[in-house]
């Protein structure tokens, strides 16, 4: 059975018929509510907060946010889904937007963010001039900026395979997040994957030196931060990931390509040290 994201882009797949069908399904409503409650339990917000609902659809996840006394703003690429949300008089503010083009809010706007069954759509390039890596980079960089210092995000998604899972988690880590993965019902066809992200919380919470400390304290979440692998102990160290090394230069060039910048082609001289001149 083909996955929805393999058939059409989300704004075309979720037309008027599919949007109504999705929203009125009692099975979908039950699953959506359970996953939103799971995401909220991982966020563990201590007080009513301003939450971004990424891929809010027809507002099913927003209902759980409202019931938990949170104020929320939603964004979705499907006009039909948002029309259903308006018909249902959903309480949150929502707008039409493509998360693959970024998260268009002022820096530090949100306390937290959630997403239910949405971000796997970013892994599909709908045309030859659009790359999945570029869309993922724009999304996670925009989300990182939109969250307050110490903010968290929980993004539930259905990865097609390990390659797709790696694409998503790597893009989040490159954007600066501390990251962890949680699987509910692992090894079954009902497995649900949650990507738990944190923005550095400050030195007093142990977050400035290693933002993954916040993730590491969450029950059942495996830390997947790979930023220090193969880098000789982190930034500024003597490993091959230090600033100015060939590994660092290649990584920066790849980031530039993903952002649509023009970068010089690699050659045998890339990253080569010049001899001292006297």
From TrEMBL:
<keyword id="KW-0489">Methyltransferase</keyword>
<dbReference type="InterPro" id="IPR022238">
    <property type="entry name" value="Bud23_C"/>
</dbReference>
<keyword id="KW-0949">S-adenosyl-L-methionine</keyword>
<feature type="region of interest" description="Disordered">
    <location>
        <begin position="225"/>
        <end position="278"/>
    </location>
</feature>
<protein>
    <submittedName>
        <fullName>Methyltransferase</fullName>
    </submittedName>
</protein>
<dbReference type="Pfam" id="PF12589">
    <property type="entry name" value="WBS_methylT"/>
</dbReference>
<keyword id="KW-0963">Cytoplasm</keyword>
<comment type="similarity">
    <text>Belongs to the class I-like SAM-binding methyltransferase superfamily. BUD23/WBSCR22 family.</text>
</comment>
<feature type="domain" description="Methyltransferase type 11">
    <location>
        <begin position="52"/>
        <end position="154"/>
    </location>
</feature>
<dbReference type="InterPro" id="IPR013216">
    <property type="entry name" value="Methyltransf_11"/>
</dbReference>
<feature type="compositionally biased region" description="Basic and acidic residues">
    <location>
        <begin position="237"/>
        <end position="269"/>
    </location>
</feature>
<keyword id="KW-0539">Nucleus</keyword>
<feature type="domain" description="18S rRNA (guanine(1575)-N(7))-methyltransferase Bud23 C-terminal">
    <location>
        <begin position="212"/>
        <end position="275"/>
    </location>
</feature>
<dbReference type="GO" id="GO:0016435">
    <property type="term" value="F:rRNA (guanine) methyltransferase activity"/>
</dbReference>
<dbReference type="InterPro" id="IPR029063">
    <property type="entry name" value="SAM-dependent_MTases_sf"/>
</dbReference>
<dbReference type="GO" id="GO:0070476">
    <property type="term" value="P:rRNA (guanine-N7)-methylation"/>
</dbReference>
<dbReference type="GO" id="GO:0005737">
    <property type="term" value="C:cytoplasm"/>
</dbReference>
<dbReference type="GO" id="GO:0005730">
    <property type="term" value="C:nucleolus"/>
</dbReference>
<keyword id="KW-0808">Transferase</keyword>
<dbReference type="Pfam" id="PF08241">
    <property type="entry name" value="Methyltransf_11"/>
</dbReference>
<dbReference type="InterPro" id="IPR039769">
    <property type="entry name" value="Bud23-like"/>
</dbReference>
């Amino acid at each position: 059975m083909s996955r929805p994201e393999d058939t059409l882009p989300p704004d075309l797949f979720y037309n008027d018929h599919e949007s109504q069908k999705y929203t009125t399904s009692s099975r979908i409503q039950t699953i959506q509510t359970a996953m939103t409650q799971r995401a909220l339990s991982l966020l563990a917000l201590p007080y009513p907060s301003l939450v971004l609902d990424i891929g809010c659809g027809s507002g099913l996840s927003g209902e759980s946010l409202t019931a938990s006394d949170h104020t929320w703003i939603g964004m979705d690429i499907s006009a039909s889904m948002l029309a259903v949300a308006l018909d249902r008089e959903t309480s949150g503010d929502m707008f039409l937007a493509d998360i693959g083009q970024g998260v268009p809010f002022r820096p530090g706007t949100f306390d937290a963010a959630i997403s239910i069954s949405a971000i796997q759509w970013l892994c599909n390039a709908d045309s030859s001039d659009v790359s999945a890596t570029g869309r993922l980079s724009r999304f996670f960089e925009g989300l990182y900026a939109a969250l307050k210092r110490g903010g968290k995000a929980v993004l539930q998604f259905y990865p097609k395979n390990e390659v797709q899972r790696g694409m998503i988690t790597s893009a989040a880590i490159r954007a600066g997040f501390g990251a962890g993965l949680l699987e509910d019902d692992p090894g079954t066809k009902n497995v649900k994957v949650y990507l738990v992200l944190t923005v550095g919380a400050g030195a007093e919470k142990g977050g400035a030196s290693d933002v993954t400390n916040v993730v590491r304290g969450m029950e059942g979440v495996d830390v997947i931060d790979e930023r220090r692998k193969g880098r000789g102990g982190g930034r500024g160290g003597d490993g091959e990931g230090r600033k100015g090394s060939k590994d660092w230069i290649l990584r920066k060039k790849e980031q530039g390509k993903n952002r649509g910048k023009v970068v010089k082609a690699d050659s045998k001289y890339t990253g080569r040290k010049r001899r001292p001149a006297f």
